[in-house]
Design a protein that fits this description.
By secondary structure, the chain is of the alpha/beta class. It contains 11 helices and 12 strands. The protein is globular, with a radius of gyration of 20 Å. It starts with a strand and ends with a helix.
């Protein structure tokens, strides 16, 4: 029997990691392996998710691919990674892949037809997560300008509105669309947004709403779509690949992250949570930070604080992970265009 795989895609800040975190905490006994396409060799998304599923998704079940968009590194990263998962004595019941915000889903789905893995895994379904508030405002993401700059680094593209085309690619490939952060828009606005998204998806695609990624595992997993056998109906606006792409003469699709950089900020325990969040906002505004995420130890608080900031929006919540004396520290990842003033950012955060 083939192992089902769910591919979760969506723009930066849409809520993919939050959705997966909720899924792992409510896995109902399924042993889940997770492949994360992280930006930069930093692994904070992995740290957010490690331990969420306890014995159903251990640290060894989480693999991070940080060498670029997964759709560009199918042969070099994805195929070897999934092959190793399949060679384990204790195989997963389900595999979940979280793509980067820039990844095109179609090349990844097509890779499931490669001979090395085609008899062992199948795409259970493709899930596209949408930031409800941003999409309602026609922005697709609250980080639209920065994402558009990043998209233009792909020399193989020639579109006037590449970010809109990428959004349509993600919707065209989806078997399920999740409008996340639905609490930030009204029921009437959700109704209008549903209609807009439905016009860009295939007939029969489910469109659901969630807040903080709270979606039942029974709904998210077990769609039994076998998407790799239906790839021709999941049209691509961005790329047209040679029909023999699944052979070993695979070529990169052209994404590049050379004009972006990321670094880690280590800080001691934070005295005041509200003041620290204000400092984060100030640093984002001053330095044009695209994304900031990580953890903080707050004085006299037993749990660690998770921080995720995309553009002007900053989300924080306390996790169920208890801190010890040895790990009462603060670790943040800062992502932005090349040339970030690291010293000034550190000074602002201190």
């Amino acid at each position: 029997m083939k192992i089902p795989t769910t591919v979760i895609t969506g723009f930066l800040g849409s809520g993919k990691t939050t959705l997966i975190k909720h899924m792992l905490q409510n896995s109902e006994g399924k042993r889940i392996a997770l492949i994360i396409n992280e930006f930069g060799d930093l692994g904070v998304d992995g740290d957010i998710l490690k331990g969420c599923g306890e014995e159903t998704c251990s640290v060894d079940d989480i693999v991070e691919l940080s060498n670029g968009c997964i759709c560009c590194t199918v042969a070099e990263d994805f195929i070897p990674t999934i092959t190793k998962l399949l060679e384990r004595d204790l195989k997963p019941d389900h595999i979940v892949i979280e793509t980067s915000g820039l990844a095109l889903p179609q090349p990844l789905i097509r890779a499931f037809n490669w001979p090395e893995i085609s008899t062992q895994v199948t795409v259970d379904g493709v899930v596209t997560v949408v930031d409800g508030e941003a999409a309602h405002n026609g922005k697709f993401s609250n980080n639209l300008d920065e994402i558009e700059k990043q998209r233009k680094l792909d020399d193989s593209l020639n579109h006037e509105t590449p970010i809109a085309d990428l959004f349509e690619d993600q919707l065209a490939c989806a078997d399920m669309v999740i409008i996340n952060k639905a609490d930030l828009i009204s029921s009437e606005e959700i109704k209008v947004l549903r209609s807009k998204l439905a016009s860009k998806t295939r007939v029969g695609v489910k469109i659901l709403t969630t807040t903080m990624g709270s979606l039942s595992t029974k709904v998210l997993l077990g769609q039994n779509i076998r998407a790799e056998s239906d790839i021709e109906n999941r049209h691509e606006i961005h790329h047209r690949h040679d029909e023999h792409e699944h052979e070993h003469e695979h070529e990169h699709d052209g994404h590049s992250h050379d004009d972006f950089e990321s670094f880690i900020v280590h800080l001691p325990e934070i005295a005041n949570q509200k003041d620290f969040v204000k400092k984060i906002k100030l640093a984002i505004d001053r330095h044009g930070i695209l994304r900031l995420k990580g953890f903080a130890s707050i004085k006299e608080k037993p749990m660690r604080l998770t921080i995720q900031a995309v553009g002007p929006r900053i989300e924080t919540y306390f996790e169920k992970i208890s801190l010890t004396e040895s790990n009462r520290t603060t670790k943040l990842v800062v992502i932005g265009e090349t040339g970030l003033n690291r010293e000034k950012i550190l000074e602002d955060l201190r």
